[in-house]
Design brief:
By secondary structure, the chain is α/β, with parallel strands linked by helices. It is about 40% helix and about 15% strand. Helix 1 (about 20-35) crosses helix 12 (about 260-270) and helix 11 (about 240-250) packs across helix 12 (about 260-270).
Length: about 500
């Protein structure tokens, strides 16, 4: 049985509005500015469908979802955001101070038992449907995923303890840093529970202290979780998610210009050099790169060819970037690839991605050192492999490591792996149009299948398969650890 007595001082569930990933807040800030009245829906998918909740787990989850209504931004959290996340404007911070979850209005949870005996031990399928204004519903994803995982490991797979979790994180962090890896903790959404993530970050902090003492080249650069960043004095890390691109594509129903439109409004909200890591794979990286090389509109050219990248009904148009003197009138024409500091790789073959990005930047005459953030199902061996490949290609590699840190357990009874849930919540519609994600791996296609097929045809998308693309066994099986990368060389 799980050693929950070791975490009795901590309450169950979610108790801080900042217990979420930074990019949910940044996207909410942009939505408030441009798209405050857009209506959306979200859909839950369990990519490990054989791992089901019990009725007792579901009832606990229902109670925790209801308790989200009690959470609000505290004065200390507001002060933290003002001093640390200076890219948030006063309008957004005022909005967030008044923000409240309304789960009774926005979230519908249901449980369908495989065989209904009325017992608390009946197992069944979980359904989570979220709907409402995008502005009001965007923050549900991370808490609902974290709570679902916690419910499963609190009631269903209970053959584990917290023993050695801090030390395991310390050992992992130390090994990464002594080999020169720069990485962040990205484990909120699929964590075993709050206490596990807390222990992990304590272990990583210890490893970071060793790194500093030994003058290693590696670094713990932060955490995507804003609450833990505040609690432990780490940098909150993150920029934008697929959701931003998916929503804009759905709203405009224009997939050919969706990437460029999303980039334009992002820079318009936050400015150049701020939150400047671009996510490439929402509709496939080749399609994204066509937009990435486009010129960001300036006052001199914005009236000539930018209509295709304006969102109908947006509250305000995106303002062109300023030049280094703060003047909009003299801003030079530059591409998005020049403006953004780098890109994030989140699906498909990472080695191929490095080569693709190297060829792309060279074709654009861009010679400054750019960053690649790797964030797709990482472990130590994969980080070291991808680091070498990226550095040899002239990039600065960094890593967002999630489930490997916050849900890496074995069963107490037999030492076999206690496999994490692979669960996601994705935008499923915006303003009545289906929202989809294609990615660089067929296993991560998301959304209405007919729309996915039509968009692939429209964009000339070439289907890709990757040896590590099976999402049902991404984090291993009960008898085995997740497989190490068997990267397919081109």
């Amino acid at each position: 049985m799980a050693g929950h007595t070791e975490a009795q001082e901590l309450p169950d569930g979610i108790f801080s509005i900042l217990d979420t990933d930074l990019y949910k807040l940044t996207m909410q800030c942009a939505i408030l500015k441009y798209l405050p009245d857009v209506l959306v829906t979200y859909a839950f998918t369990n990519r490990t469908p054989h791992m089901r909740l019990t009725r007792a787990a579901f009832q606990w989850l229902q109670g925790q979802i209801s308790k989200l209504a009690n959470i609000s931004l505290t004065s200390s959290e507001l002060d933290y955001l003002k001093s640390t996340c200076t890219f948030f404007n006063d309008t957004y911070l005022h909005f967030l101070t008044a923000f409240r979850f309304q789960p009774s209005k926005h979230v519908r949870a249901s449980f369908t038992p495989l065989k209904d005996t009325g017992s608390q031990d009946d197992v069944g399928d979980l359904s989570l449907d979220i709907g409402g204004r995008w502005l009001d519903t965007i923050l549900y994803e991370i808490p609902l995923l974290a709570l679902t995982s916690e419910a499963y490991f609190k009631f269903c797979d209970k053959d584990w303890t917290y023993k050695n979790q801090e030390d395991r994180a310390y050992t992992k962090g130390r090994r990464l840093m002594e080999h020169g890896c720069i990485f962040s903790e990205f484990g909120s959404r699929r964590r075993r529970d709050y206490h596990t993530q807390d222990l992990v970050i304590q272990g990583l902090k210890r490893a970071a202290a060793d790194c500093k003492a030994q003058a290693w080249k590696g670094k713990l650069s932060g955490t995507s979780n804003v609450h833990f960043a505040m609690k432990y004095g780490l940098s909150p890390v993150g920029t934008v998610a697929h959701e931003w691109f998916m929503g804009i594509a759905s709203i405009t129903n224009d997939y050919e210009h969706a990437n460029e439109t999303a980039l334009r409004y992002w820079v318009g909200c936050f400015g150049e050099g701020v939150l400047g890591i671009a996510l490439t794979d929402t509709f496939g990286t080749p399609t994204f790169l066509k937009a990435f090389k486009r010129t960001m509109p300036t006052p001199a050219n914005s009236m000539a060819d930018d209509k295709a990248t304006l969102i109908p009904g947006a509250a305000s148009p995106p303002l062109p970037p300023m030049d280094s003197t703060g003047s909009k009138d003299t801003a030079e024409e530059r591409s998005y690839a020049q403006i953004f500091q780098g890109v994030r790789q989140d699906s498909g073959n990472p080695i191929d991605f490095v080569k693709t990005m190297r060829d792309f930047y060279e074709s654009q005459g861009i010679h400054e050192r750019k960053t690649i953030v790797f964030s797709d199902s990482l472990n130590i061996e994969l980080c070291l492999e991808y680091m070498r490949a990226a550095e040899e290609a002239g990039f600065t590699p960094t890593f967002g490591i999630g489930t490997f840190f916050t849900n890496d357990f074995v069963h107490e009874s037999d030492g076999q792996k206690s496999v994490p849930l692979n669960i996601v919540i994705k935008l499923s519609s915006a303003n009545g149009y289906a929202a989809i994600k294609i990615s660089d791996n067929i296993g991560k296609n998301t959304g209405d299948s007919e729309t996915v097929h039509k968009v692939k045809e429209t964009l000339g998308y070439v289907e890709k398969k990757w040896v590590n693309g099976d999402e049902t066994t991404r984090w291993g099986t009960a008898n085995n650890e997740a497989t190490k990368a068997k990267v397919q060389k081109s």
